[in-house]
């Protein structure tokens, strides 16, 4: 008899509207956690009162908030975040619009299994304004990148990318909405594949098994 597939444990981190989180929740609800390969065991945020947390609560998931301003230093915040996430014993941590750079302790614990989604085609336009910067540069195509997080800003090994054409009439919000449609599908696909199949990180290359 074949072994029953085991769902990997995911902690998802959010800072905003949480539509990427919702896409993961919907995908898991549709097929079941075992078939998808992963279940969300908790959702964390760096701020209160956001729709991302409300989505988690509606889904009946435990949530936690870890705010920089509640800690003496950035390192203490990083240690608290590491502890809060560790409590849920995740196999993978997903930054789905989490607008904070994590520190050394978090990366020591979760490096190589911390996935981020960024709304540009890295290595172009890293940082907090990837959509605005691509538009201002006059890029004709942009998109999104799902990657592992390292100690730089949006510099870690790339897992997958999706392309979106820039239209003449685009403003930041219209372009970001079209990127997010592609981004949500890509994140769901990538997280499911790495959870089900496993992966290796060889230097800058990510090999999904
Ligand atoms: C995404 O485009 C993500 O890449 C960016 O912020 C957006 C988050 O959207 N960093 P949501 O909160 O998942 O709706």
UniProtKB/TrEMBL annotation:
The active site is at 118 (proton donor). (6R)-10-formyltetrahydrofolate binds at residues 74, 99-102, 116. Catalyzes the transfer of a formyl group from 10-formyltetrahydrofolate to 5-phospho-ribosyl-glycinamide (GAR), producing 5-phospho-ribosyl-N-formylglycinamide (FGAR) and tetrahydrofolate. It comes from Streptomyces brasiliensis. Belongs to the GART family. One of its GO terms (biological process) is 'de novo' IMP biosynthetic process. This is Phosphoribosylglycinamide formyltransferase. It catalyses: N(1)-(5-phospho-beta-D-ribosyl)glycinamide + (6R)-10-formyltetrahydrofolate = N(2)-formyl-N(1)-(5-phospho-beta-D-ribosyl)glycinamide + (6S)-5,6,7,8-tetrahydrofolate + H(+). Residues 8-191 form the Formyl transferase N-terminal domain. Pfam families: Formyl_trans_N. One of its GO terms (molecular function) is phosphoribosylglycinamide formyltransferase activity. It is an enzyme of class 2 (transferase). It comes from the Bacteria. Its EC number is 2.1.2.2. CDD domains: FMT_core_GART (cd08645).
């Amino acid at each position: 008899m074949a072994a029953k597939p085991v769902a990997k444990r995911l902690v998802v981190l959010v800072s905003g509207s949480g539509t990427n989180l919702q896409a993961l929740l919907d995908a898991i609800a549709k097929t079941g956690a075992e078939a998808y390969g992963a279940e969300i065991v908790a959702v964390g945020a760096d701020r209160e009162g956001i729709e991302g947390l409300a989505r988690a609560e509606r889904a009946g998931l435990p949530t936690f908030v870890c705010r920089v301003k509640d800690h003496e230093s950035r390192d203490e915040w990083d240690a608290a975040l590491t502890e809060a996430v560790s409590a849920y014993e995740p196999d993978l941590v997903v930054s789905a619009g989490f607008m904070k750079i994590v520190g050394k302790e978090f990366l020591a614990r979760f490096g190589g299994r911390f996935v981020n989604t960024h709304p540009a085609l890295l290595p172009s336009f890293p940082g907090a304004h990837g959509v605005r910067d691509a538009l201002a540069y006059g890029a004709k195509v942009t998109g999104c990148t799902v990657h592992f997080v390292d100690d730089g800003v949006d510099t870690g090994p790339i897992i997958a990318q999706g392309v979106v054409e820039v239209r003449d009439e685009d403003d930041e919000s219209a372009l970001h909405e079209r990127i997010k449609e592609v981004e949500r599908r890509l994140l769901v696909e990538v997280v499911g594949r790495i959870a089900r199949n496993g992966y290796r990180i060889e230097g800058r290359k990510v090999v999904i098994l």
